[in-house]
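User: I'm new to structure prediction. If I give you an amino acid sequence, what do you actually give back? Let's try with this one:
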Amino acid sequence: MLPAETNFLAQLPLFFRPHPNLSDAVNHNIIQSEIEGGVSVMDLAPETTLLIHTQHTCYRIVILEDGRALISGHPQYCPRPILVQLEGSTWGGSMLKRRFIGRGMRLEFCHPEYSTPIVTSCVQEIRQCAERAPILDRAAQHMTAHRASLL
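Assistant: Good question. You get back a string of structure tokens that encode the predicted 3D arrangement of the chain. For your 151 residues, that looks like this:
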């Protein structure tokens, strides 16, 4: 193999291969999530802002660190930005694709005022805003850290 070919192969993304211990339905869902597209939260820089359009709501999410985020957009759960833990996405059942927001999937996050995770309607569109969120001032950082310790 030539060095140029090696570099090219190293840049190819790693896709999921069906696992023999998972059902056909589960394997299908995992592969479908890669086809539909999405974003791994851990690959995003802090202060990255996403607009997530679900069937019923448009959420604005500012990525922080360690899976935490400020989320707003839902009239009941987050009318103003609130610190949450982004758990990942589901297909409507109990299997969670951790720290991933996927089209055709339901976003799941832990809200500090609710004992069970919040699960959205199906994600239809994911957009990254061109501008980054402003850096949190020291007081906001302290409050964010304090709230995170309560999660």
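You can read the tokens as a compact description of the fold. Here is one thing that stands out. DSSP finds three helices and nine strands in the chain.
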